[in-house]
Specification:
Number of helices: 10
CATH superfamily: Hypothetical protein af1432
Largest sheet: none
Structural class: mainly alpha
CATH topology: Hypothetical protein af1432
Strand content: under 5%
Oligomer: single chain
Order of helices and strands: HHHHHHHHHH
CATH class: Mainly Alpha
Distance between the termini: 45 Å
Length: 197
């Protein structure tokens, strides 16, 4: 799919702004005990930051449009709500169901079409798409690590997310695992008070 920037007349600016701002009201980690709020807008901003930083670290040039795509990667959750990655990717059946939900939402609301997983995957080159997916996981790990080490270390859900997502990031299929693992190790030391600013 060759993606072009949306033309102003296709989607009114007020509508695009409204949908983007609505990401502030969609909570992530639904059904999980957490101390702090964790909105899609908060997550999306930090995914964009991680995407830019790790692209720089790995010598991957990204365009402004690719960065915006990274920052809007969960825009569709304004309609669907957040479904955590572990559920979306539980098995072939849940993966297929999520694709079908995204397809239906995108066909109903034109504004979401460029930000479905399928559209993003076809727009970004493979290495950039993979980087985005791992930055998405890394940002989730950072949030849950902050919860666990700073506030919320008595609840087993929090620790299990830190472990499960950490294992995915450190996995052999992640070409960025060395640099991401280094950040994770240093960040845990920082959260424990072992590293100072």
């Amino acid at each position: 799919m060759n993606m072009k920037p949306l033309k102003e007349k296709e989607i009114p600016l007020y509508l695009e702004v409204a949908k983007i701002r609505n990401t502030a009201y969609v909570e992530r980690l639904a059904g999980r005990f957490k101390i702090r709020r964790y909105s899609v807008s908060n997550h999306s901003y930090f995914v964009g930051i991680m995407f830019e930083r790790f692209a720089f670290i790995h010598g991957i040039e990204i365009s402004a449009q690719e960065l915006i795509m990274a920052m809007k990667h969960d825009l569709i959750e304004v309609v669907t709500g957040d479904l955590i990655a572990l559920s979306k990717n539980l098995n072939k059946k849940t993966k297929s169901a999520w694709k079908e939900i995204e397809k239906e939402v995108s066909s109903h609301w034109e504004i979401f079409k460029p930000y479905s997983d399928e559209a993003i995957k076809s727009f970004l080159k493979e290495e950039k798409y993979l980087l985005l997916k791992y930055c998405d996981l890394l940002e989730l790990w950072l949030f849950t690590a902050e919860e666990y080490y700073a506030y919320n270390n008595k609840h087993p859900d929090t620790h299990s997310v830190v472990i499960e997502i950490g294992n995915l990031i450190r996995g052999y299929k992640n070409p960025y695992n060395t640099s991401m693992s280094a950040l994770m190790d240093e960040y845990v030391s920082y959260l424990k008070g072992e590293k100072v600013e």
